[in-house]
Amino acid sequence: MTTLLALLLLAAQPAASGFPVPDCALVPGWTRQGEPRSFDTETLFDYMDGNSEGYFAYGFTLMRGITCVSAAGDQLVIDVSAMGDPDRAWGFFVANRDLRSPIEAIASAGQVLPRKATFAKGTYYVEISASPDKDHRQALRAFVVALLKSVPGEAHVPDAVALFPPAGLEPDSVRLVPESVLGLRMLKTGFVSQYPAGRALVVPEPDAQAARATFARLRERFPAAKAESGPGEEAFSATDPYLGGLLLFRKGRNLAGVANVEAGQDPRPLAQALAARLP
């Protein structure tokens, strides 16, 4: 039994050794307080005080962190999380960003605020929280710059972001919905964005056959739907008590369309523009 356990631990070492472990010494004047932290899917719940479901929805597998202190008594809590893939790391940042502040061109995307810095890079999401209550942006930015060198991966923005027509697109409104797009379980993972006409969506499927099957189930979800001649290869419009006016279509392996359209608004121009950008 002891030999088997040793072999299992040895086999796990290469994967663990590649994880970017933060280091207080990356920035002069900071030292580590306490022991390094490590959490997986079984233990994250306690560390997050029960708020771990959001991490899991974006494919969380492992978090490693440290606490750093300065001689002045300032404290930084640094946590690096491995997410499901680069799309989900980006999507997790977007879902948790400060909506009152702009997104910065830090790796895939990031923000440096007075008491918190966050960014995504490759498959990783990095969060640094500062205390006490004052402006820590200088220290936070220094650690962000240092961590960018040690966190592997590329600056990655999902390809689907470029599919949304720029005309009328609300700035920084594109986001990844990791499950149940529009609250519909059949639309497993996709992207949504905001326009004056409503919410646009793109849900990629593995291939055109899978997209046709999902679109058929989607059409059944709205019994009073009306078939539309376009856009895409098949389309329908409907009205829903929760989703408002809808115009949904399939083009190739992508399901797309416009939802939450208010009475008097015409979703067709936006849907046609979206269809023209889909492969």
Mind explaining what this structure looks like?
This protein has helices at residues 2-17, 44-47, 53-57, 86-96, 137-150, 208-221, 268-277, and strands spanning 30-40, 62-70, 75-82, 109-112, 116-121, 124-131, 175-177, 190-195, 198-204, 226-228, 234-240, 244-251, 254-261. The protein has 279 residues and is of the alpha+beta class. Strands 7-8-9-13-12-11-10 form a seven-stranded antiparallel beta sheet, sandwiched between helices. A six-stranded antiparallel beta sheet has the order 1-2-3-6-5-4, with helices on both faces. The chain is elongated, with a radius of gyration of 22 Å. The longest helix has 16 residues, at 2-17. A hairpin with a 3-residue loop joins strand 11 and strand 12. The chain contains seven helices and 13 strands. Residues 1-17 have low confidence and may be disordered.
Supply Rg. 22 Å
Taking pLDDT < 50 over at least 5 consecutive residues as the criterion, the unreliable ranges are 1-17
Overall 3D form: elongated
CATH topology of the largest domain: Protein Transport Mog1p, Chain A
- How much helix, percentage-wise, in residues? 25-40%
Mean pLDDT over the full residue set = 92
Overall structural domain count: 2
Number of helices: 7
- What is the name of the CATH class of the largest domain? Alpha Beta
Strand order of the largest sheet: 7-8-9-13-12-11-10
Concise synopsis of the structure shown:
The protein has 279 residues and is α+β, with helices and mostly antiparallel strands.
How would the blueprint of this fold be written?
Layout (H helix, E strand, L loop, with lengths): L1 H16 L12 E11 L3 H4 L5 H5 L4 E9 L4 E8 L3 H11 L12 E4 L3 E6 L2 E8 L5 H14 L24 E3 L12 E6 L2 E7 L3 H14 L4 E3 L5 E7 L3 E8 L2 E8 L6 H10 L2
Antiparallel strand pairs: 1-2, 2-3, 3-6, 4-5, 5-6, 7-8, 8-9, 9-13, 10-11, 11-12, 12-13
